[in-house]
Design brief:
The protein is α/β, with parallel strands linked by helices. It is built from 16 helices and 10 strands.
Amino acid sequence: MNRLANWVQVNIMERVLLRRSSESMYLVLGGHIFFETLSAAVELDLFGLLQAQGKLTREQIAQTLKLELQPVRILLLGCVTIGLIRKSGSYYSNTLMSKQLFVRESKRNIIDVVRWQHHINYKAMFHFEDAIRANSNVGLSVFAGTEPTLYQRLVHDPRLEGIFQDAMRGISVQANQTIALNLDLSRTKHLVDVGGGNGTNIMTLAGKYPHLRATVFDSPTVCEIAKKRIEDARMSDRLGVAPGDCFVDPFPATADCILFAHFFTIWSESENRQLLKKCYDSLPSGGAVVIFNMMQRDSEDGPHSAAMGSPYFLTLATGKGMLYTWNEYMQWMKDAGFATVTRQVLPRDHGLITARKG
């Protein structure tokens, strides 16, 4: 009887209670394999093929992609197992997630982000342990050059720089739509977007607020790109650029709102505090500074996006940043002198934190 009871207990433990933990462990141990399964499917345009055809058999997929049957079988096994595609009988089709994220025609697709992870980030993340020990972005060593950040070294490889810029553009397009929907600029006269890149953010915001003047504050070469896009959109009467180093050069004197979108994750706490104090000193009474980022929970136990993103900033990007908590940002703002600080929780682990000068 005791043997039977023990057998039942062990089987319940292994089949029910530990099953979820075991599945999670497979995802961790095989993380590189499962990601490369996704990457291969993206590069082969498997999701685009299934979107166009609706559903196909393994043989039809192999024939259309001009591939041998067994490697296609292995690819499909991985895609089905991790929920990227669906198998019904002999037929394969896209899941709702794949239709949205991995089909080029979808406005929400993250294909360029997948390519960025595959071609750039995976090479450097091999050195994550070394980066932890050194507290430095030692993963940068896999890229040519002597510059201290990824952004500077990519200029040595136009192909990789193009992959990186495509990913950043895709992230920005989705981000600026979220900002425009949730950031109230009805009382703002002149917004400065620090690290504003090619001007996508301010062009979207200016489209929603016809009274708004806005400026991209970024490096000279980036500002030239933004200036050209603004001119092509015939928005130069309200939008412009201000080349400079945000840690050294003054912000435009007429700004009454300063935006940092996906920017504070790049830098250390001390550098972020420096920028917030600089904002406080340059803004007029009633002026605001806005932080838009993915956020780490205040309990420091997630979400997955924070745990996935933070090693990138340590190991590769600058060796300084990470995804910080809501409370950290808010405390830094208060310490800089801002009178009121509010937070807005947004989809996909993002948030807006607005601080206003009294």
